[in-house]
Specification:
- By secondary structure, the chain is mostly helical.
- The chain has 5 helices and no strands.
- The chain has one domain.
């Protein structure tokens, strides 16, 4: 996997004794979470594919799922307030 797509900060040249945590960019986190939310692969398969720990996959999946739910609620509130009762009578 391309290192530029995963990490937010490049490794320092003196990384032999450097025990800093990895910082992943948001696009990478979203890509992993989306793959997990699709449900086509197990968490272990996704973790192996992206070279991260399975716990991290689950954490990003939960975080992104909750964000999606919040956005969905905000969109529904906006549409209801904008279109009024018309939207509540529509079936999706």
């Amino acid at each position: 996997m391309d290192r530029d797509l995963r990490y937010n900060v490049p490794e320092s040249k003196d990384s032999k004794n450097d025990k800093k945590r990895q910082q992943f960019i948001n696009e990478f986190k979203a890509k992993v979470a989306l793959e997990a939310l699709k449900g086509h692969k197990t968490v272990s398969e996704i973790a192996s594919e992206f070279e991260i720990h399975p716990t991290q996959v689950n954490n990003w999946k939960k975080r992104n799922y909750s964000l999606l739910i919040k956005k969905q609620k905000k969109i529904k509130i906006f549409l209801t307030s904008y279109f009024g009762a018309k939207i509540s009578n529509c079936q999706t």
